[in-house]
Amino acid sequence: MHDHTVHTQTTTQESSALIDVAQMSDDAKSVLLGDSLVLPNDVSHDDLSPDAGCMADATNKPQASGSPDTSSTYTTEPFSGHESKHDNGFALVQEARFIDSKDTESTMSNASSTVFDQGDSFASSAASDYTDDEDTDSMCSLDSEYLDHHREHGRRYPAEPQGESRRSFWPDDEPQQRLLDLLHAAELRLLDGQLHEAPIRRDVQGVLDVGTGTGIWAMYDPQVIVRDFADDHPSAQVIGTDISPIQPEWVPPNLQFQMDDANLEWTFEERFELIHSRGMVGSITDWDKFAKNAFAALQPGGYFECHELSMSFRSDDKTHENCKSMIRWEGFWKEVGNKSRRSFTVADDGTMEKSMESAGFTAIETRFYKFPVGGWPKDPRLREVGMYTHVALNADLEGLLLRPAVDVLGWGLDEVYLFAAELRKELGSGKVHAYLLLKVVFSQKP
């Protein structure tokens, strides 16, 4: 057995002064107040300024093993190997058009996949700001089964050529994309702009982002100050993969997007120095296979890093325990996991660590972070994280719930919408000091 190093980290509180939206960082205002974000009908910008009586500390301490104890204060040293140039940054993706690079030499799996980068374009359903005089001979010719989205419950879902057993639980339309990008903003703010925890070298060459989603972790947007991986590591050749083609058109020259299914066999062999994945809970059908594929795709000495959010709410002062919908949320995902045979508890148990160890990884290290929900923390940075998270969940609770509830548990649509409304009300009450748990696990291939 390998020793697993476990840390629990956030920053101790240095200020209890209230801030409102106007006092937040420029990046925060660009999301929370900009035209690119449409708040849900029952959420106003005034809701993002918490009441002083509801402020609380968000503190924790390191834990040697097992589940984290998040009850005491702990200040951490900056993790070596990072150069935090920017405070934080992100971009919201509004439209998506995709580029065929003609370089499909090495794709993740044996499934039909296409590389997207800054080459020739093909028409998509997204709006274009360009004229029609582009080279039509270079238009991509993906099979329609990969490009035609599936519509269900009034939402748009990724195409499903892989069959029912690996169908996506979540939509890939604009509300869900907004949720993903806001959670990215929250995590980036929480981690002081760090995109990874593994101590990779500065001039890293090959990087794979599995389940890239909107591509925001890997991409570059020149309109905002964004510390993304491809732009921050110009020597790296970055590939982002996903089953849904929702990534942006314009990317750095060192970034490619591929459509691919991480649950299939990968064809990459010892190519990458870092493989990053995030938000794959409920999407990975076999975590042991996932880790083995990553192991085979890494060069010796390369790192595999996974970031996952817990699907249960917590509070140090037990304020969430009187919230029936928050308690029901945890039981809901456990029931969905049991019936669908997919794990929704990987941030709460040792699934990721065990899978990495079984695959042959060493130097496995685990870190926990509190992920506040709402503007209750006294610390301004954590309060900003909580505001991002609150708006993200408000943006598309229904999208998270619909397929699992209706298709797996047999709920009616009315029950789904009622549950979402009740949970949204509890999250917006201002009386609950709730947080999710972010678990980061990274390991090295010998």
Number of domains: 1
Q: What's the helix count?
A: 9
Shape designation: globular
Q: Per CATH, what is the topology?
A: Rossmann fold
* CATH homologous superfamily annotation: Vaccinia Virus protein VP39
Unreliably modeled segments:
8-54, 59-65, 69-106, 110-146, 220-227
What sequence of helices (H) and strands (E) makes up the elements?
EHEEEHEEHEHEEEHEHHEHHE
As laid out across the biggest beta sheet, the strand order is 1-12-13-11-10-7-8-9-3
Radius of gyration equals: 21 Å
Distance between the terminal alpha carbons, to the nearest Å? 15 Å
Total DSSP E strands: 13
Overall SS class: alpha/beta
Task: Return the average pLDDT rounded to an integer.
Answer: 72
Report the portion of residues in β strands. Answer: 15-25%
Helix content: 25-40%
For the sheet with most strands, the description reads:
9 strands, mixed
CATH-defined architecture: 3-Layer(aba) Sandwich
Family: Belongs to the methyltransferase superfamily. LaeA methyltransferase family.
InterPro entries: SAM-dependent_MTases_sf
Organism: Fusarium euwallaceae
Biased composition (Basic and acidic residues): 151-170
